[in-house]
Design brief:
With 204 residues, this protein is mainly α. The chain has one domain (7-200): Four Helix Bundle (Hemerythrin (Met), subunit A). 75% of the residues lie in helices and 2% in strands. It contains nine helices and two strands. The protein has a two-stranded antiparallel ribbon with strand order 1-2. One of its GO terms (molecular function) is CDP-diacylglycerol-serine O-phosphatidyltransferase activity. Its EC number is 2.7.8.8. The chain crosses the membrane at residues 7-28, 78-100, 112-132, 138-156, 168-197. Its main location: membrane. Belongs to the CDP-alcohol phosphatidyltransferase class-I family.
């Protein structure tokens, strides 16, 4: 019998922080907690490699946390804010696509991501929705479109790079910080550029 206390590592605790913020996003109806979850989702891999604690248990835990923070939470939030049948259907499409994306990721061993990663899809959907709400241009149909579009990208065969260059990571990190004080425009641009990068660099 495997005891949790014997197999859990420091990187797994970082992963758990990810799901905590995902739950807070749901309970407090706040997109910003999803952005924070993305930070800890990135950090758990770094910590695992630096401390040599990469494990199958950690990989499974990461996927479970991701489906909550980046699948359930965004799907719930868009329905919470728009509360319509079309958004409900779109949110379910997003969630199912995210679960399929994570399941496929677990059995692949490739250099790049195949399909838009679920944290990036959640970021794209959430920051677009939040920015549109900020400017009063969001609608049931626009949000539904972005949810379904994100879902399609997640289960697509489009390649997305795993490790962007350091200058982009620095800009992205600053954009995350700014988003926490409701300056979402830089993060909005980062999300759009990452999504478009994969689409325009896709080779059949």
């Amino acid at each position: 019998m495997f005891k949790i206390r014997n197999i859990i590592t420091i990187s797994d605790y970082v992963t758990i922080i990810n799901i905590i913020f995902g739950m807070l996003a749901i309970l407090l109806h706040d997109f910003r907690f999803i952005y924070i979850s993305i930070v800890f989702d990135a950090l758990d891999g770094v910590v695992a490699r630096k401390t040599n604690t990469v494990s199958d248990f950690g990989a499974e835990l990461d996927s479970i946390c991701d489906v909550v923070s980046f699948g359930v939470a965004p799907a719930y939030l868009i329905y919470h804010y728009f509360d319509s049948t079309v958004v409900l259907i779109a949110s379910m499409v997003f969630l199912i696509a995210g679960a399929l994306r994570l399941a496929r990721f677990g059995i692949l061993d490739v250099k790049n991501f195949i399909g838009l990663p679920i944290p990036a899809a959640a970021l794209f959907l959430c920051v677009v929705t939040e920015t549109f709400l900020k400017y009063g241009i969001a609608s049931n149909y626009s949000v539904s479109f972005f949810a379904i579009f994100s879902g399609i990208l997640m289960i697509s065969d489009i390649d997305y790079i795993k490790y962007p260059k350091k200058p982009f990571l620095a800009i992205f990190g600053l954009s995350i910080v700014l988003s926490l004080i409701n300056i979402t425009e830089p993060l909005f641009l980062c999300a759009i550029l990452y999504v478009l990068y994969g689409i325009f660099n896709f080779k059949k």
